[in-house]
């Protein structure tokens, strides 16, 4: 397979608002609705695994991910009712209708970033803080989770954003060690909704959720595996 390098474009933030008024009531002030939060980050994974480079953009609960594995690009888009897996070279892919549980999570957590939440996931499973330190000039907290699978440590920025910067994982069964680094975190980007939709020229097979689960049990479906299980299955 021939490869290409994915390129990221970070744009300046633009605030969009409108004035609100009430009939038969004096105008007191103008309010602007909260625009969906936007994020960008690059993820580099290496160690005892093939090098993988990923690029993430999000707007509210919308997600776009460009992943390069072995020099070959794969595109994942999650937007509204559908989870898209696309081969951008062959211009083909699948659009899977997301589960009711995944759509409910969007409703309940409309402002939560759809990626980069490993810190919350690990602490919910019992990870404990082991130390404070500085990583790449940023104050971070390090959490550790040890279980039957092995040991995982995560470095999280010591602020209200709690951005993951590094994940170090040791798998007990295989003895493999994998390190993941988040770099180039950026927020407040001007990303149009169209950025989170497939190009019109991409040939898509539309699949209902139950049908996808049935077919996936028998073997691979589409050009790529599901990289963000919770955004498709809701768990």
Features:
13% helix; mainly beta; outer membrane lipoprotein receptor (LolB), chain A; 4 helices; disordered N terminus; globular; 235 residues
What does this protein structure show overall?
By secondary structure, the protein is mainly β. It has one domain: outer membrane lipoprotein receptor (LolB), chain A (Clam). Helices cover 13% and strands 41% of the residues. It has four helices and twelve strands. The chain has a twelve-stranded mixed beta sheet with strand order 7-8-9-10-11-1-2-3-4-5-6-12. A hairpin with a 4-residue loop joins strand 5 and strand 6. The longest helix has 10 residues. The protein is globular. 27% of the residues are buried. The N terminus is likely disordered.
Task: Give a brief outline of the structure.
The protein is mainly beta. It is built from four helices and twelve strands, in the order E-E-E-E-E-E-H-H-E-E-E-E-E-E-H-H.
